[in-house]
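Entry 14: structure prediction run for Phosphatase PAP2 family protein. Input pasted below.
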Amino acid sequence: MRQRPVVSPSRPRAPRGAALLAAVLGACAVLLLVLVVVGWHPLLTVDGDVSRTTHRWAVGDPGVTHAFRVLTDWVWDPLTMRLVAAAAAVWLVWRRAAWWSAVWLAAGVAAATLVQQSVKAAVDRPRPVWPDPVDSAHYAAFPSGHAMTATVVCGLLLWLLHRRGAGRVLWWTAVAAALVSVGGVGLTRVWLGVHWPSDVLGGWLLGALIAALAVVGHEWPRAGRADIPGRRPGPGRWSG
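Run finished. Output C-alpha cells:
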C-alpha cells in the first residue's frame, strides 16, 4: 500500500496576521513621523485648530479638567500601566508558572519605554504653550508616552487573555476597559494642552506596532515547533 507523503501543517494564522498588521502599522507610524519632522502644514493646522478648541473648553470647564488630571496622572499614568503589567507578570509566574509569557510581557513593556524615549529625543518636538495652562508636562511631545504605554500594556494583556481562551464576559469587559483606557488617555492629553493630537496618534500607532511585533515574537517560535511532523503541542496554553 502506497504511503501518503507527510505534509507539514501550515503555521497558525496568528503570527502571520500580527506580522501583516505590524507592517501596516509601521508604515503608518513612519509616515506620521516624517510629516511631524518636516512640519507638514496641513497636519500642523489640524493640530493647532483642535488644540486651541480643546484648551478653550478645558479653561471653561474646570470640573472636567480636574477629573481628567486625576485620570491622566493616576489611573492612566505610564507608571500605573507598567505596574499593572508587572502585576500580571507576577501572576503568570505565581499561578501559572508561565515564565516565558511573563518575561515576554515585561520585555514588551520595556521595549516600548526604550522606543518612546528614543523617538522623543530624536524628534524633540515642542509641546503646546498656552498663556493660561491647565497642566504641565516635561520632555519632548512626540510621541505621547501616556498613549503609547496604555496601548502597549492593554494590547499585550488582551493578547494573553485571548490565548487563555477567556470567557465571553471577561473578554468583552477587558476589551471595553482597554478601549476606554487607550482612547481616554489620548483625550486627556489633548484636553489638558500638553500634547498635540498627532502626538497621541503617534503614541497609538507606535504602541500598537510594538504590541503586534511582540505577538509575532511570542507565537512564531511555537508555530515553527508545531510544523515538525509528529511533534505534539505543549501541555498547556500558558506553559513555557
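Notes: The CA atoms of residues 55 and 193 lie 6 Å apart. Will compare against the previous run tomorrow.
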